[in-house]
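NBD/HSP70 family sugar kinase: structure, please.
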Amino acid sequence: MSQDRAHDGRTGDSSLLRRLNLSAALGAFLAAESLTLRELRAVVGVSRPTAEDLLSELLTEGRVEETSAPRTPSSTRAAGRPARHFRFRAESGYVAGLDIGAHKALAVITDLRGNLLATERVELDPDLDARGRIRAGIEVVRSSWARAKVDAADISGIACGVTGALRAAEGVHDVREGPVGSALAPYSLPGFTEIDVAGDLSAGLGKPVAVANDVKLAALAEHWKGAAREHRDIVYMFAGHRAGAGVLIDGQVHQGRHGAAGEIGVFPALGWAPAMERLHARGAELAAADAASQGGAAGRPHAGPPGAGREGELVIASAARQDPESLEVLIEFAEVLARGAAVLALAVDPEVIVLGGGMSRGGAIIAEPFRRELAKLTLVPIEVISSAMGADSVALGAARMALDTVVAELLAVPGS
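Here you go.
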């Protein structure tokens, strides 16, 4: 909607019109691999001199640069001098995504096209205090910058996913800070109700840090780079060290009024917590047996029981060997998870349900009992797909959140 002439009767604000045109031009470059001057004119809807001025300003700002022309068959090339092509400079800024969990802190860095440049991970003791966990998050983010050879000054945005965070219109808070129903037992990281997560991370990194719920960010990543790229309405089931869920409607994470949309795992009637406890207990038994067979737990890098953080992986491996007890525990877990998915599916009628988190890598051992139970409880058949993401899904979702914020700021037009 950018024009050289006055629009909607407004004739006096040429400065505003120029800012609108500049925003439209930058948006055009963001939406295309490259553009010629003629193509820029057509997209923005301006005269050639105006298009030249807009291009010149974007070149001066370093947001756009000249690039080679896309390859085309020789039979389709026009005669005469080839047109110059220009592209958005993805490296004109960078974003970082951070995942702080019970067992790890993981950071990723991408350019402004979302291309992944570096990933850094550090294992954490599940009993680490809140301050130590925040320090670990700060250090792993800085390590990712160093690995990507990016200066702190070039970082345009940072976001972090945290277990138990609820992101509402009035700000981000820990799920246990509110008047939680007496029959519920929500989980958050130890000590995170006593600290300002966003404030402490921002102070340590020297940049503003946005904080959001980890499962919702994992769902966002799945829609961005994972198995749900072609879908808009999604129920995302997270099964890892704990169980959780997120909902995307028309490609956007649905937060709800208080940021609590999808938090059905706290509902006792579903039985998620007992099923997770049995899964972890079986994993701990397998880990202890493995440690005993190898002469004890000497040399483990962190405190805590053997196999801490790997319980699901151990149960999956045992079930794959047809261990009856592990199979029983795993099938029960899959069925309980499916009941929660059915509740959400009946509420929002999604195109697809995605099984995410570390447990999703169990393949058919998890997916088939999940599908069978889900089919009993839904009105229509719903496709179930396993996540294509790895352990970096939350961090990538955080990077996507930061990237969306940065792009929105780039395209914002003050006074419009």
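Notes: Residues 324-348 form the longest helix (25 residues).
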